[in-house]
Design a protein that fits this description.
The protein is of the alpha/beta class and about 210 residues long. It has helices at about 35-55, 70, 75, 95-105, 130-135, 195-205; strands at about 1-5, 10, 35, 55-65, 80-85, 115, 140-150, 160-165, 170-180, 180-185. About 25% of the residues lie in helices and about 30% in strands.
Length: about 210
């Protein structure tokens, strides 16, 4: 099983936001950056599925060149590979543009499952995942709190899964999906692991 995980570089929460001179975006030349937290939960879920069922995890990021150090966190946490779709324009691009860029890379990978964070810490629109699913022509489910791979679920399809969605008012919903599929992962679905020194050193040798 091959799992693609979409990650994003965002400005650190401690950084004081400043508007740029054009009044179109933040002034990020001197900002600090980090891995988007909801995407970290998506990456962790992918790694847990790999450890339980086998396969590989490929991280993808559509951001400017400066995102390299954030992308390296994925193989440092034991992802098998990472793909950087690079353009300065992605720093301020809308969800459709980012989704199209990621879709181009994912199509070449032949994945069984795509995971994204529910939303980004900077804009919080929650759009990239669902637009990406539509672009790839994949069934999708959002706000996922649990993932179960099941070869004989209610759909009766091999290579299918069941997911637990968080609804309003403390309610949850179980949904069955055929694979390949895309899921947007809710923060708190699991316990995050962090990169060890051994993982960081090994990541330098990964593609």
């Amino acid at each position: 099983m091959k799992i693609a995980v979409c990650i994003k570089q965002v400005v650190t929460r401690e950084w004081q936001l400043r508007v740029n001179d054009q009044k179109t975006w933040i002034r990020d030349q001197d900002a600090g950056f980090e891995l988007n937290e909801p995407d970290a939960y998506a990456l962790e879920e992918a790694l847990r599925l790999k450890e339980k069922h086998g396969g590989q995890v490929v991280a993808l990021c559509a951001r400017p060149a400066r995102a390299t150090h954030v992308i390296r966190e994925a193989p440092a946490r034991r992802a098998d590979r990472a793909i950087h779709v690079e353009s300065d324009a992605f720093a301020t691009a809308d969800a459709s543009t980012i989704a199209e860029a990621l879709a181009g890379a994912i199509r070449d990978e032949g994945v069984d499952l795509v995971l994204t964070g529910l939303q980004s810490d900077d804009q919080g629109f929650g759009q990239v995942g669902v637009i990406l699913a539509e672009t790839l022509g994949m069934p999708h489910a959002t706000i996922i709190m649990e993932v179960q791979l099941d070869s004989a679920n209610a759909l009766g399809n091999a290579g299918s899964l069941r997911v637990k969605r968080e609804l309003e008012g403390g309610w949850f919903q179980w949904v069955a999906l055929p694979m390949p599929a895309l899921l947007t992962i809710q923060s708190g679905i699991n316990q995050l692991r962090y990169a060890t020194l051994k993982g960081i050193m090994a990541a330098k040798k990964k593609e």
